[in-house]
Amino acid sequence: MSTPDFLAWAGSRQQHLEGTLARLLPTAGSSPALLHDAMRYASLGGGKRVRPLLVYAAGELSQASAAHLDIAAASVELIHAYSLVHDDLPCMDDDTLRRGKPTVHVQFDEATALLAGDALQTLAFDLLANHAAARDVQSQLKMLGLLAQAAGSHGMAGGQAIDLASVGQALTLPELEHMHILKTGALIRASVMLGALAGGTLDDEERTRLDHFAKCVGLAFQVVDDVLDAEASTATLGKTAGKDAEHNKPTYVSLLGARDAKALAADLQADAQASLAGFGERAHRLAELADFIVTRQF
Ligand code: GRG
After folding, report:
1. Which domains does the chain have, with CATH numbers?
2. Residue 78: count of CB within 10 angstroms of its CB
3. Burial grade of 66 (CB within 10 A; 0-12, 13-18, 19 or more)
4. Relative to the CA of 225, which ligand 1 atom is closest?
5. Of 81, 167, 204, 272, which has the highest C-beta tally within 10 A?
6. What is the pLDDT averaged over residues 63-67?
7. HSE of 295, CA atoms in CB hemisphere, 13 A
8. pLDDT, tens digit (0-9, with 9 covering 90-100), for 151-187
9. Whose CA is nearest to atom 14 of ligand 1?
10. 52 CA → ligand 1 middle, Å
């Protein structure tokens, strides 16, 4: 259960990110207006903002500057927003509801949704390349490379390709894990490591422990997502519930059952917490986020 202090911190970071995105996105109504309005519709006014929260929390650990973290947090959220827009398209998940609103291709049209996703993705790299996001240029270059790899064919896009190919297939647990480490885990892991790189006070051994934390949290996020898809309502989730079973998708719930899937999420949570031991109070927001990711109800 999240504490009031954590919820207040998360709420203030979410509000701050909303303002940052609103400022960095193309102005509403500016030409080409349909595309720019779709980009803003896709990325403003919704979502848990888990990935930016991980950037900010890891940035507390690495003592990064607030302005640098804003750029990293906005970049990773724009990549996430693009992935949701494309995932909802008729050629992929064909969904009509996202974050409690009509999906972008429903609200606008399919071509605009495709372009909005493309432009959100390139804006993420534009921000990270053209604004200060770390103490030195080498760290910033590393951040660019890290985000590109996490989003690409060896990361999120690759995981999505495996996901599309696995519908109706009987995956083994290691195959399911591999798919989710790429599809969902890669961007979550990148979020933590972007926050770490933005500050630059961590040594190699500390970064390795943080990376292990990020891997555990990334996988736990997906295990919980599978449980919520099976057990929560469309109204609570703000997206269509029950789609995995409807589409005969292999999930942690279909492979393990809900009880063992929850136990796996709890194990990953414990592993994540253990990897923060030694960081002390500096890691307390990351620890709270790991708990939130596993205990969330939406
Ligand atoms: C189209 C290249 C491409 C990739 C899409 C991440 C992804 C791959 C698709 C999203 C579809 C999905 C439901 C994935 C499962 C886990 C996940 C990423 C859920 C959505 O993320 P949340 O819960 O969403 O953080 P909010 O709306 O809170 O930001």
Report:
1. 4-295 (1.10.600.10)
2. 27
3. exposed
4. 16
5. 81
6. 97
7. 10
8. 999 999 999 999 999 888 889 999 999 999 999 999 9
9. 184
10. 14
